[in-house]
Amino acid sequence: MDHQPKFFENLSGSGKAIGVLTSGGDAQGMNAAVRAVVRMGIYVKAKVYFIYEGYQGMVDGGDNIVEVSWESVSSILQIGGTVIGSARCKAFRTRAGRLQAAYNLVRRGITNLCVIGGDGSLTGANLFREEWSGLLEELAQKGKIDEEAVKKYAYLNIVGMVGSIDNDFCGTDMTIGTDSALHRIIEVVDAIMTTAQSHQRTFVLEVMGRHCGYLALVSALACGADWVFIPEYPPEEGWEDTMCVKLSENRARKKRLNIIIVAEGAIDCHNKPITSEKVKDLVVQRLGFDTRVTILGHVQRGGTPSAFDRILASRMGVEAVLALLEGTPDTPACVVSLSGNQSVRLPLMECVQMTQAVQKAMDEGRFDDAVRLRGRSFENNLNTYKLLSQKKPDAELPKSNFNVAVLNVGAPAAGMNAAVRSAVRVGITEGHKMFAVIDGFEGFAKGKIKEINWGDVGGWTGQGGSILGTKRTLPGKFLEKIAEQMRTNNINALMVIGGFEGYESCLQIYEARSRFEEFCVPVCVVPATLSNNMPGSDLSMGGDTALNVIVEILL
């Protein structure tokens, strides 16, 4: 008798069969999704089948459709690509091909299909579902199946998961494979920066993204690139002059390198291509800078998946099986998406149509609509990049007479320096005077505080640890000296970046307000700890990097 606790008491897959396939371009994390579907399916007592080589395997049948066990997916979590293969299939685009695919599924009793792929793969799955009853009737008329089979397997459930390194599917904050591809890009940028700095070079880096600029945009944000070209947000007329002026200004500020990131599908406002070679030639001709082009290509697809992609794919795979078990003949095909930090189900075709609407908007020159249709995550990333990459002329900056102090508290965590950079640049853009505190509250008490400017935080995004220095010391025993420093420097707000010590420090500052009026100012804490144990936040700064280090060690 089975005495194991059941986490999904009301759901049973007994008597049901699930087929899982990967289709279209491969993406890191697909294997984690396959593994999750198989093990969740078996957990609820369903039969689970691999469909090798995507839709081609479904059409060909035979050994391409194989029942699998729990052990079949052992040790695939960390493998990139897809162990069950992926292939483009012309036959499945024809009704005859789909008829053969339906026959191969019915023979094995498979009426639940989990498809991992892009929007084209998912659109094909939805068409297959819509035609299913008609395909079964046609098979019965041809004598390939009997009427009992037509009734027994009357409807097909479809659930999709998006595997795409481009993050080009609307309705989800992140697709499987995107985070891993970003890791590949950032690794290359970090490597390039050392040689570029040595020789005072400009590097033009071309990344994937024929129709979507997510990889280019977010990698530019993550490495502090000087300029980025993406298809959804082409540069304005005269961008050549604007870019060259910015590159020259950066060199004048003693910056020894320039990084320009180009999505392979980048265009100008007239829908004309902007290539990496064109950008390189422009920089060489106009500025005479030593400039090189690096095209990443399929390196972005390869390698092991990041910790985030493994977790994302695993969670999505479990949710996909739950969606299949809860499906009815009236349930529309759905896609499992990420919203915030939760796996959610959305109508598949609504998301596909929205994705296609982005391309239509770009083709018609409605670029603001294209950015909006990409979703809040894309739009926020674009606005953040624009805010942090280009300093307004001093004459255009507002004057707030507001002084903000930024400091790190607690153990160092990856991302602290990027957070300081963002805080400083946003504060300056808002007209505030920004101050950096060295060595946390202990340094604050000793007067280690200085004004910090826009250029002072250049190149901080990719550096680990804490450039400002950080200590675990709480402010409790230094309250009087800290109040004196706040009074001397006329500090009107405090921004603390750190772990639980940061929370405790700000609580002590708050509780001392009755004794020190200098502490009666806005105080903000940004969670930064690799332990990810901060109340009120799903993810703390540094947690993702720490997970990736652990995963790399375990390989």
UniProtKB/TrEMBL annotation:
Name the PANTHER family on file.
ATP-DEPENDENT 6-PHOSPHOFRUCTOKINASE, PLATELET TYPE (PTHR13697:SF5), PHOSPHOFRUCTOKINASE (PTHR13697)
Q: Which GO terms describe its molecular function?
A: 6-phosphofructokinase activity; AMP binding; ATP binding; fructose-6-phosphate binding; identical protein binding; metal ion binding; monosaccharide binding
Q: Which GO terms describe its cellular component?
A: 6-phosphofructokinase complex; membrane
Q: Which cofactor does it need?
A: Mg(2+)
Q: Which UniProt keywords apply?
A: Allosteric enzyme, ATP-binding, Cytoplasm, Glycolysis, Kinase, Magnesium, Metal-binding, Nucleotide-binding, Transferase
Whether Transferase counts among this entry's keywords is yes
Q: Any one Gene Ontology biological process term?
A: fructose 1,6-bisphosphate metabolic process
- Which domain of life does the protein's organism represent? Eukaryota
Lineage of the source organism?
Answer: Eukaryota, Metazoa, Chordata, Craniata, Vertebrata
Q: Which Pfam families match?
A: PFK
The family database entries (InterPro entries) matched by this protein are listed as: 6-Pfructokinase_euk, ATP_PFK, Phosphofructokinase_CS, Phosphofructokinase_dom, PKF_sf
Pathway involvement? Answer: Carbohydrate degradation; glycolysis; D-glyceraldehyde 3-phosphate and glycerone phosphate from D-glucose: step 3/4
Catalytic function, reaction form = beta-D-fructose 6-phosphate + ATP = beta-D-fructose 1,6-bisphosphate + ADP + H(+)
Q: Which residues form the Phosphofructokinase domain?
A: 18-323, 403-553
What is the name of the protein in this document?
6-phosphofructokinase type C
